[in-house]
Amino acid sequence: MSMLDKRAIQRSEKVCNSCQINNEMKTAISWCTICEEAFCEQCDKCHKSFNFLAKHKLISINEIQSGNSDLKISEVLSCEEHPEKIVKVYCVDHSKPCCTLCATLSHRKCENVTSIENAAKGIKKSKLTTTLVKKLYERNNEITEIIENRKDSMTKFETTSENIIQEVSILKREVIDHLNKLEEKIKVEVALSKTQVNKISPKMTILENEMKEETKKMKKMAINFIPSEFIENFKTSAESFGC
């Protein structure tokens, strides 16, 4: 299987090769490792019905997508325009690998068309590759630093969260203890006040009774009151003077 076929299968874009010849676009459900072709449900049944194809191994597309198959990817790259052709040349002008048919039809006017082998020579030591590797290295360091910063932030966050929870728990206990002490203090003061009230209450009752008795006596004195002789004499003298 070529890399292009593998990519199409992973993207669920692979169509039946047999139907594609007849310009019919049917979704493939299996891949034959011998024929190196994909088949739709109908073509899959037809493929299995021939005795001379009985030894061909068919792998489910779903199995390939899940990565559970032992299917090997060919190092040979198929042409995007002509999947049945193998990429053999590289157009420098368009920065595109292509097959010989593409080179003849679409790139015959291009000045820089070379073989894949020549295009690949010195690619590891080229300035473009060196620059790309450097950028990838720098980007990798940046990503690594970001990941480490995120991890450090998460660690600090977890530590801070735990400290806050502990502080809240301590504060909660202190508040509860303070309220409990305040409650006990109020209970003691209320009990003491009740005791004092209970002590005063009998005295108040006695005092109230005494006041009632004195009130009764004063009422009796008012009823039995007789003016004294001095007051009577003063009254007589005043009358004699015409007052």
TrEMBL record:
<dbReference type="InterPro" id="IPR000315">
    <property type="entry name" value="Znf_B-box"/>
</dbReference>
<keyword id="KW-0479">Metal-binding</keyword>
<keyword id="KW-0175">Coiled coil</keyword>
<feature type="coiled-coil region">
    <location>
        <begin position="165"/>
        <end position="224"/>
    </location>
</feature>
<keyword id="KW-0862">Zinc</keyword>
<feature type="domain" description="B box-type">
    <location>
        <begin position="11"/>
        <end position="61"/>
    </location>
</feature>
<protein>
    <recommendedName>
        <fullName>B box-type domain-containing protein</fullName>
    </recommendedName>
</protein>
<dbReference type="InterPro" id="IPR047153">
    <property type="entry name" value="TRIM45/56/19-like"/>
</dbReference>
<feature type="domain" description="B box-type">
    <location>
        <begin position="74"/>
        <end position="108"/>
    </location>
</feature>
<keyword id="KW-0863">Zinc-finger</keyword>
<dbReference type="GO" id="GO:0061630">
    <property type="term" value="F:ubiquitin protein ligase activity"/>
</dbReference>
<dbReference type="GO" id="GO:0008270">
    <property type="term" value="F:zinc ion binding"/>
</dbReference>
